[in-house]
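Minutes, project check-in
Item: structure for the 1252-residue chain
Input as provided by the requester:
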Amino acid sequence: MENEKTEETPGPSPIKSYFQLWTHAKTSDTLLRIAGTIAYLAVGAGLPVMTIVFGDFVNDFNGWGSGGVSPDSFKDAVNKNALYLVYIFIAKFTAAYFGSMLYNVTASRIARRVRLRYVERIMHQPIAYFDRCSAASTSTNLTSDVNHIELGLGEKSGIVFQAISMLLVSFGIALSKNWKLTLVCMTSVPFVFLVVTPLASVDTKIEGRIKAIYSEASTVVEEALGSIANITALGASEKIMAHFATYVKKVMGISWVRGLIWATIVGMIFASVHSVYALCLFYGAKLAAAGEIPDGGTVLIVMFCCILASQSFGMLTPVIPDLIRAGVSARRVLSIINQKVGDSGDKACLSVPSVVGCIQLRDVTFAYPTRPSLPVLDNVTLDIPAGKITAVVGTSGSGKSTLVALLEQWYSPQQGSITLDGEDMERYSTSTWRDAIGLVQQEPMLFNDTIEQNILNGYHGGICDGLTEEEKHALVVEAAKKADAHYFISALPDGYRTRVGERGDRLSGGEKQRIALARAIVSNPKILLLDEVTSSLDPESESVVQRAIDAASKHRTILQISHSLATIRHAHHIAVMNKGSFVEEGSHHGLMQLGGLYARLVRAQRMPSHHKPATAPKTEESGPASPSHLSTMDQATATTPTEKPTPAAPELSLHSKSVTHRRSLLPNLAHLLTTYPCIAPPAFAGLIGAIGIGATFPLTAFLYSKLITVFQLQGTPDFTSRANFYALMFFVLALSEMALYWIVYYFFSMVSVTAELGYRPDALRATLKQDSAFFQAPGHASGALMTMLAIDAESIGNMLGGSVPIITYHVLNITGCAVMSLAVYWKLGLISALVCLPLYVVAGAGKTSIDNKAGERCERFFLESARFVGEAVGSVKTVQALRLEEKVVRDYGGRLQAAVRRSTRGRLMAFMFWYGGKLLAEGELSVGDYFIIYMAAMFGGQGAGFAFGYFADLAKAKMALNRLFYLLESKPPINSTKGIDTTSLTAATKGGGTAIEFRDISFSYPFRPEVPILQNLNLKIARGENVCLVGRSGCGKSTVISLVERFYDTTTGDILIDNTPLTLLDINKYRQKLALVSQETVLYQCTIRDNLLLGVADAASLSDGDIETACRTANIHDFIISLPDGYETNCGPRGAALSGGQRQRIAIARALLRNPEVLLLDEATSALDAESKVLFREALEKAGKGRTTVAVAHHVEVMKAADRVILIEQGRVAEEGSFVDLVEKKGPFWEFLRSRVFVSATTLRHFFAPSK
């Protein structure tokens, strides 16, 4: 597949975009934000203020150590200063709590508004936008990008103000104490700034590039998961993976640069901190010796303030990546929100009640934005009279459906005009225009809601003002009866409250079409647009629906597009299109006399001359059909039901605790190393570095104590030499830390990237290989799965790249500091190791537990919301046609909830000062030992608090790894079958015999086991036989196809392939001998050539001549070579760049290229014009020799061409035989035909005799 060029999102810089987010804050948010900012500024000022008290402490301790202070005075000073620290800690804790709470609350509220406005803007985008942008990228922006925005607006941004406050207050206090020492110590700050700023700028660009690549990759994932049955039938999962791998390689190629950047940034920042220690001690001792500094407390105040100023940059180290991601994400999201979408509300001059319904197209020329050089309509003129039926027919791809697109205002013509009642379309607002129109498309799109709500959506805007629930239901039932949908709905267990599944996939094609028709007529629109509305219906339903259309046409303007010419024969006006122009117009009789294209199309369909409009009994008189007929399960050919859980297999859900909590984190990490052994070397190197960093904390505490106590020697000969020695030790420590942090961050970034990029393809591959039942589990809709896979990959990457190294060296920090405290003096060490540190741990554990539970709830919510929006975007044409944009936004807004994270901080060090002072006063502890223990407790406590900030990432990663290994280790009962190679079976039975046999088959779909679909079905299909399955919509025809493909296993009975149970065959080799063409054709966003070769295992073995032959057989070659890029033309998201007929012909050619032994056709020609159908049947007769063909069809032409017709009713074979024999018998098949064509047996024999 081709690799599209990935470009970053244009627009303002990430920094500017980040600040633009504030435009989405309300006044209350701003006020809360200001209060939170004040709180964070207070938190930042707290530590510098504490240095003043700390300096007094040091002077008191040094005075005691030198014998210059009495015990009582020392105790009083210690008690007073300890009390000051208590007050400061309480104030700091309170400010930190409220600052964090206020920032997180406002971040959630702003993110909620950003989500809503993004969805609102997306829903109002012109359709041309969606021709180039997939639903997958939209879901990615809404989940990953807005999550990054919320994180960047939350307490992470508050830390920025805390760091600024700490920097400014520290600098001010230090200058007030001694400006010379301050300026010398602060030389590291501009140095760090000059290094970090350009590197962070480069990282921002790389982050934007990576996001753009992943956005494109998400389209591949969404298309594959959204058509899983098609991928399974084609055996195309590895080709999809190869396409996806191209994006993974792009990310891998640039991610190592980010590792180098962040290793350098972090190493420089931490080295600068200890460089300040060295500078301050060296120069401070020099000033003290010269008498310019009175005591050690002043030096320590300046030093600690300078350290805090430097640490303010260190505080930003873990925050900067989140802020960068937030800025990049804001640029992507705001580029959509800030777009000016032309709303025609300003131009409205006419309203719906004034519409009569006379439409005129004058000299209209139009080309789709994706192919501007290829006109689809060329100087088209057409009159659509008010209150009349106007039919448009023609060859596939001639521009018929484009007329509907223009009339729905999805696009605007490049030339010409469209008028309604003499007024230009531009004078109507879009909402007014669409209020007058009802639409039923060729591929009806239903929403994952109840049947009743789907029909009510036909009230434009989704609002039924002033109606009670009973009145709404009555209108829905009335519309359903008119559309011949009431009885099959009523027979469902939940009736009108039955959920239809993602894209309506729990219903058959015919059932979806009838619900869509009911939705179109429920609001009684003035104009009705019908685009191949009966293409997927059986003859009986087609007649009844056509009768409903005829009845609904009274006093209404109808534009009907159809390939089934029998349904439009009695239209008031028929216009014939060919290659973007109208070539003939008139009545059926006049056009037949003309003998042109229309007459050829009619003859191709062999329509009987005295076929009359359907006069079938009214639906009410037909009576309810059997439950099996109404089971709504004739759907397995195009997509698989995706929402309702499988009762027998609840463990299939990736969100169940049996999956997410099946292993703890450490076994998962060990398993990760064995699964991806390439991460072991960099992980080992990074771990060595982390151990080294962990060891530096106790060493730093020791050097701190020496730094403090060295000032007891002030005025002695050894003072300067001892101070210089410890300054040198701090400088050596700084260089060591720079190297260690560089090692940790570089190598663990490589571990993160390697594991994440290994996870993404492996998880997708394992997902694609799951059985159909897997995709019916809760939360397994395609959009939700795609979002979950992306979020899990990020969780694993964040854990390995950040949480694991940070937690590792802080655990070693805590352990080392506790051991050192106990070793120096056990009494105070016990307080440090067993009271202060455990309280930090308990507080952190409590916060982590709360955050984890909230995170799990938020994860489930956001996955569901992503599914909801993905579905809405995927059916945006239907959303806009029904004016449901605001309803989608309202429904989505109802799903959003604010999530507030809380943080807990402790006030423990004041107790250390008090108890330490008590021990000193009683002579049990030396000053030097005391400060060793104190600094060890401080570093250990800080490490504990810092480490617990990353434990939430561990919980998310644990669930992600459990899901990954569940997928990798699971063996789907069907798709993992390794059995008998079908090659030997084929050779043994090549001369004839039974190819396929259904023996006493009963079957129910896993998500609705109480509804039987097939009941004791028995049928045999001989090798090389052409069999046609017929029956009412929902009778189980397509279920037979899905069982032949073995998408599901039967409930009871056996399917035999060449007399061997299907369950014993190697499933992959077996499917290679099948080719499936379904009614709802699925193409992918790649070239036409790539789509054609998608189902061919050895694509290199096919020549261009083979491809052209298959395309000529499918009557699509001439169209392809007429395109500017020919076979290299990109098909767009889900093949949106092509018409329905063009997509279907490409799918047919794709099936023929597989050279299958068994060809499965489920209404494969429903979107083709009559001539294309004839050409395809003729080609199929040639290509079908020696090939078994099983076709599901509603059209008589397909039945006639079959060797045997099998009528299925109530999940059983009701009658079978040749077409002529079944007509002669006047049995169930005869009655089935009579439901559409009410003529005599002689007429049927005459007009439906097999072609010679």
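Outcome recorded: The two ends are 43 Å apart (CA to CA).
No further action items on this chain.
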